Amino acid sequence: MSPTIKELHISAADWTEIEDIVSALKPAKIATKALQEEDLMTGDFYRTWLKCKVDTERIGSRFSKLLVSYMNEREEKLFENEIILSAIYLDPRFKVVLNETQIESAKNYIIQVWEVLHFLENSEPNLLDLSSITGDNCHQVLKMIGDSTSLQNSYIEEPRQKRDCDVIKYWMNKENVSPNLFKIAKNIISMPVTEVSVERAFSAMKYILNSQSSKLAEKLLEDILLIKLVSV
């Protein structure tokens, strides 16, 4: 910029700082693009998050270190969410990152999910008091699921899967061995972690619902939108 106009002049030091900021934000840009994909599972989100954090930390600038510190704070908050914990726990690629307390929290949530599934699949609910679930009686409740051995032994002791492991296929292969645990995993790991699908649904709707089709019935609109979304 022109050195004769003070307000427009950018010094060499300023340019260096700008370059540092741009460089530090590059991993975040790559991660943001990766998170635009559809059907992302929690494990996929966490993999992208970890890569972004590692790549940002590797840059080593003052700004990149500041970003990493904020990411660590955010990660602590994410790991306070029992839904996130249970999804990561049931992802064979990343279960090893959880500590004992986080694993216990994940197990308790898994039990609650099973209770809901049990209620939906049976005419009468299982009258288990969820508030009474603690680490002391967690094993007994897991037995009710019918997969206690699989959950606490086979699954936990299995080696960590590679990052390119297909988690859906992994659990589909477990369906006959641990059918109830498979049902739970299918529901938890399919939890959407971004709003990409919702945003795309809104975008698709504006092409379906316009001035020429404003009188379409709600059910017909839903059917058209469903067909459009699954055919993409």
Structurally, how many domains make up the residues?
A: 3
Number of alpha- plus pi-helical segments:
11
Strand content: under 5%
Uncertain regions spanning at least 5 consecutive residues: 125-137
Radius of gyration: 24 Å
Strand/helix succession: HHHHHHHHHHH
What value does the average pLDDT take?
A: 80
Biggest sheet, open or closed, and with what strands and sense?
A: none
- Number of DSSP E strands: 0
Bin the helical content: 55-70%
Q: Pairing-aware structural class of the strands and helices?
A: mainly alpha
Distance between the termini: 47 Å
InterPro entries: HATC_C_dom, RNaseH-like_sf
Domain HAT C-terminal dimerisation: 153-228
GO molecular function: protein dimerization activity
Pfam families: Dimer_Tnp_hAT (PF05699)
Question: How is this structure best summarized?
Answer:
It holds the Pfam family Dimer_Tnp_hAT. The chain has 11 helices and no strands. By secondary structure, it is mostly helical.
Protein model, in words:
This protein has 232 residues and is mainly alpha-helical. The longest helix is centred in the N-terminal third of the chain and has 23 residues, at 12-34. The protein contains eleven helices and no strands. The protein folds into three domains: 6-78; 98-189, no CATH class; 196-230, no CATH class. The chain is flat, with a radius of gyration of 24 Å. The protein is 64% helix and 0% strand. Helix 5 packs across helix 9 (179-189). The chain has helices at 12-34, 42-59, 62-78, 82-89, 100-121, 138-145, 148-157, 167-172, 179-189, 196-208, 218-230.
